[in-house]
């Protein structure tokens, strides 16, 4: 049994108290994900590919299968010919 005594025994009051924490957690998570996309954009651009390829990493938000696209993208990037090295 959960102890909600500090919230007057009301689970809804506990959830209301957690609201600001969850909002900050979500904002920090979105900021970190945006930074992740930015880093991949720079990596692709320096390798001579179009930086917009990093946006394919947005597929990670698709439940259950979203992890496949970034994995395949990373494997492709690792084994592809980099245009920047051909110059």
Task: Count up the helices.
Answer: 3
Specify the structural class.
mainly alpha
Q: Roughly what percent helix?
A: 55-70%
Tertiary shape = elongated
What portion of the residues fall into strands of 2 or more residues?
under 5%
* Main beta sheet strand tally, sense and closure: none
Radius of gyration: 21 Å
Q: What is the terminal-to-terminal distance?
A: 66 Å
Query: If you average the pLDDT, what whole number results?
Result: 86
Number of strands: 0
Summarize the helix and strand pattern as letters.
Answer: HHH
Q: Which regions are unreliable across 5 or more consecutive residues at pLDDT < 50?
A: none
Word description of this protein:
- It contains three helices and no strands.
- The radius of gyration is 21 Å and the shape is elongated.
- The chain starts with 10 loop residues before the first helix and ends with a helix.
Summarize the structure.
The protein has 87 residues and is mainly α. It has helices at 11-47, 68-79, 83-86.
Secondary-structure blueprint:
Elements: H1 11-47, H2 68-79, H3 83-86
Features of the shown structure:
single chain, 87 residues, mainly alpha, 61% helix, 0% strand
